[in-house]
Amino acid sequence: MSILNKNWSALSKPKTTLNYIHGQFKESKTKTYHQVRDPSTDQLITSTPESTDAEFNEAIESSKDGYQFWKNTSLLSRQRVMLNFQQEIRNNANDLAITITQEQGKTFSDAHGDVFRGLQVVDYASSIPTTFMGKMLEVSNNMDTFTRKFPLGVCAMIAPNNFPSMIPNWVISLAAVTGNSLILKPSERDPTASLLLAELAQKSGLPPGVLNIINGTHPIVNHLTSHPDIKAVSFVGGDNAGKHVYKRATENGKRVQVNMGAKNHGIILPDANKDHALNSIISAAFGAAGQRCMALSVAVLVGDARNWKNDLINKAKALKVGNGFDQSNDMGPVISKQSKQRIENLINQSSKQGANIDLNGTNFEVKNYENGYFVGPTIISIPHTEFDIYKQEIFGPVLVILETETLDQAIDLINKNKYGNGASIFTESGSAARFFEINAEPGQIGINTPLPVPLPFFSWSGNKASFAGENSFYGEQGINFFTQTKTVTSMWKPSDQTTSLEKASLSMTYKF
């Protein structure tokens, strides 16, 4: 089963990933390429170009032209494109999931989840006639003030490798439906899902220039964060790149939203539903091989819940690891050979620093996939937080276990961490849950749920070192990010006739 057998124009030359510029899929003229390898086999799938300056400038000119046309398209026409896009994604979800499993390594069911969660943002974007409404008030006799939203112009998105469909759709849908044009740079490691989304958007009626896809790495990022015609930049990824994007883009006067690293904690109280709590931690720690910014990578066992550690270890041992297309597997490989090496180095380093490795997933082999980038489920117990394995985002299938006597101690531990994406608590006590909700600092709180990611009609609410920018992703904040608000104050007297005794006032109005 291979998506390459399907007649997609985006994949007409699968050994070279194409750019998508002004409605056409184009082969780059660069001489520099980055290999895209199947994480399960290490086999070469395609090569991603380091696009040239000329190709980037072509994308800019296309986006400028596309914006001039698209911003004057009626809101209902833009909504119709989103409704069509919604249906195209549903019809082709299987093909999107296949390419995600091939290039990113997720299990096929998890790849479908990637597609579906992105589709939910497209669903939200389709409600734009309601969410785009302004406000109006008669502020004085014959005087009205009202607000209107306008698009910004050419926008950019720098996407990560862990959600090749979901995260691009956070931005493709909202940037387009609000009247902007968008230049998308996919991850060089798994670019194909973005190209398929572009083709589906084209089939849905999105005009040339409204969406352009330019492949590359650091040089393209630097262009996107500095070019004067780009008004806003979205980024999801790691700390170092995120800080670079935020600094460079803001210095160049751009609106920026940057989602960076995370260290999400799951507290288990002794009154929790044991099986639900442990299964939730296992799911959130090892799903997608731990390559989620909302992964619960730290379990905090409180009081007598410390006696459940062995049960947690046994559940992790039972997970089946292998190729994502095998539906009996629970977990696939990590994205690259470099990621596998980095994760295993952190695991080994933690042992040297005095951590206890309860379950070791290093040097993990899968039969018939000996060259794959597999790391087995790993559980590490540490006595305090001064370990690199705790302080760094692992982004792999590693669960760190800490123990505390009380809930207060567990919350204090979470609040001392620099990150603030999310945290969860498992308990049957409403008062404990309420206390946690109020006092834990992360922006996304889960109560008896392991992944407290809000649905798209809310907004992403990670905070502290996990986020930088003005408005966050999707929901009302997402629409605000891609628009500028104008207030209009107008006076219409009952008649345009004025008496000869009336004269102009040069003072600012202060009485209403």
UniProtKB/TrEMBL annotation:
Record-level GO BP terms: L-valine catabolic process; thymine catabolic process
Domain Aldehyde dehydrogenase, by residue range, is: 27-488
EC number(s) given by UniProt: 1.2.1.27
Q: Which CDD domains match?
A: ALDH_F6_MMSDH
Q: Which UniProt keywords apply?
A: NAD, Oxidoreductase
* Any one of the GO CC terms: mitochondrion
Q: Which GO terms describe its molecular function?
A: methylmalonate-semialdehyde dehydrogenase (acylating, NAD) activity
Please name the InterPro entries in this protein's record: Ald_DH/histidinol_DH, Ald_DH_C, Ald_DH_CS_CYS, Ald_DH_N, Aldehyde_DH_dom, MeMal-semiAld_DH
- Kindly give the NCBIfam families that the UniProt entry links to this protein: MMSDH
* PANTHER family, alphabetized: MALONATE-SEMIALDEHYDE DEHYDROGENASE, METHYLMALONATE-SEMIALDEHYDE DEHYDROGENASE [ACYLATING], MITOCHONDRIAL
Please give the family membership noted in the entry: Belongs to the aldehyde dehydrogenase family.
Q: What is this protein called?
A: methylmalonate-semialdehyde dehydrogenase (CoA acylating)
Can you name the source organism? Wallemia mellicola (strain ATCC MYA-4683 / CBS 633.66) (Wallemia sebi (CBS 633.66))
